[in-house]
Amino acid sequence: MKYLKQFGIILGISFIGEALHHFLPLPVPGSIYGIVILFVALVSGVLKVDQIKETSAFLIEIMPAMFIPAAVGLIDVWELLESKWPIYLLIIVVSTILVMAISGLITQAVIRKEKQ
Amino acid sequence: MKEFLSSSSYFGIFLSIFAYLIAVAFKKKIKSGLYNPLLVAIVLTITIVLLCGMDYSTYNSSARYLSFLLTPATICLAVPLYEQLDKLKANYKAILIGIFSGVITSIGSIFLMSKVFGFTKKEFVTFLPKSITTAIGLSVSEELGGYVSITVAAIIITGVLGNIICEMVLKVFGIRNRIAKGVAIGTASHAIGTSKALEIGEIEGAMSSLSIVTAGIITVLLAELFVGLY
Asked: For the residues A24-46, what does the mean pLDDT come to?
């Protein structure tokens, strides 16, 4: 029953997140409410890591595969991208590299400065 | 056969997982840092779907059960984050500054490039949320009047791209601190990048998870301001 119990807890939090998304007028998805709820529950001691450990590790491990259906969905929007795809791709590539470099470099610099 | 495949309750989900397993198995043989199992699995799945003459809705009628697990899995990212609570507490200032500068860079760079390429406001809004998690990005685009399906495509391409290039980019720019690595990956490429950060290490994965949430919220707060300036 261990795994069923763990999965039940995770689905319960998913449901609470979904409800908050439905009833609160903010553009925040249920999954984000859910992370915050679980994090607070763990920090406050309402939940122990052991109560969800194995099932959460399993879900996180198979997470990359969960993105496949959405990515395959690109075949349905290809018509919309076709005419301008080189520009679109250029924007995505340049911007993604810039964000990665700048957020990483600044975080690293601040950590080093604080250590001094 | 085609008729059977288009009515099968399991083919889409089986194909997706099987393609991923094959792609991961090849990773052990091809020891190149450029080889990306997620990308290979996506290409493999698309190829087979097209070869079978299936349309997306047929494939997705069973594959959607994989997507269905994304919300519970995303919620579980709180666990690695909790396990790094001490690191988070000790470095919260650096982490927040890093994520904030990343969001500004993201919206700012898209703003500038949209101007350069003469995009309409609608096109700018479409790409504005490309670095944040799909569910938030989709509603930002919808709210501000973007082309929502292109936004979703841009978010997914950004995530897969981040997953592929993050190790190389971090190396080139000399980002070696593990907390900074996680912040960089999560801020630039949300959950799809984070799945790579989790493979790199526990600290990287935890900080990347935190960045998904924080970058998403900061983007929501700043989006309207930038759209007003465009």
From this structure: 93
Burial of A16 (0-12, 13-18, 19+ CB in 10 A): middle
Residue A10 gets the label, from left (phi > 0), alpha (psi -120 to 50) or beta, of alpha
- Please give the Cα distance from B180 to B207 (Å, whole number): 8
| Contact across the interface for B180 and A52, Cβ inside 8 Å | no
CB of A35 closer than 8 Å to CB of B209: yes
- Provide the residue type at A11 as one letter: L
Q: Is B77 within 8 Å of A36 (Cβ atoms)? A: no
The residue type found at B67 is S
| B230 contacts B124 by C-beta, under 8 angstroms | yes
**A4 inside 8 A of chain B by CB:** no
Q: Which of A34, A64, A107 sits opposite B195 (nearest CB)?
A: A64
d(CA B126, CA B138): 9
Residue B159 contacts A, CB cutoff 8 Å: yes
Report ipTM (2 d.p.).
Answer: 0.94
Three-state secondary structure call for residue B1: coil
Q: Count Cα neighbours of B111 within 13 Å in the Cβ-side half-sphere.
A: 15
Chain-chain contact of A96 with B161 (C-beta, under 8 angstroms) = yes
What per-residue confidence (pLDDT) applies to A82? Answer: 87
A103 token code pair: 């957020």
Residues B50-82 pLDDT 10s: 998 888 999 999 999 999 999 999 999 999 999
